[in-house]
Amino acid sequence: MSAQLSRWHFVPPPSLDQVVRLLTATVVGDGGRRISVHLSEQNNTALVLCLGHQQAQAGETPDVLAELRALGADSCGTEMTADGRQVWALLPLRKQPRS
Q1: pLDDT one digit per residue (tens) for the chain, 99 residues
Q2: Which of 21, 34, 39, 86 is deepest in the core (most CB within 10 A)?
């Protein structure tokens, strides 16, 4: 993901890898064997979204939201759906300096 943000001419946030690990661990913790991880950018903000493809039976995990905020997320959330858990974080981005 860092490489993609660099190709988009952004400096990857220092906590990006930790955020991705936390998001994926959260949905994997629901017992599924398949997950999807998505990255998008809009208005100098990165959206990192992780989807579980296992019908979620675990309860909400409010600790993950506090951890995401501590890692620098401007906003974050989690939602249980019939298809599995969705967990996301919005991370502020800054443009790469021009060379």
Answers
A1: 999 999 999 999 999 999 999 999 999 888 877 899 999 999 999 999 999 987 766 555 668 999 999 999 999 999 888 888 899 999 999 999 876
A2: 86
Instruction: Provide the token pair at 89.
Output: 């974080």
What is the torsion angle, in degrees rounded to the nearest 10, for the CA atoms of residue 85, residue 58, residue 56 and residue 86?
0
Across the chain, where does the E strand assignment appear?
10-11, 35-42, 45-52, 75-81, 84-92, 94-95
**Superfamily name with CATH number, domain 2-95:** Histidine kinase-like ATPase, C-terminal domain (3.30.565.10)
- Domain borders along the chain are 2-95
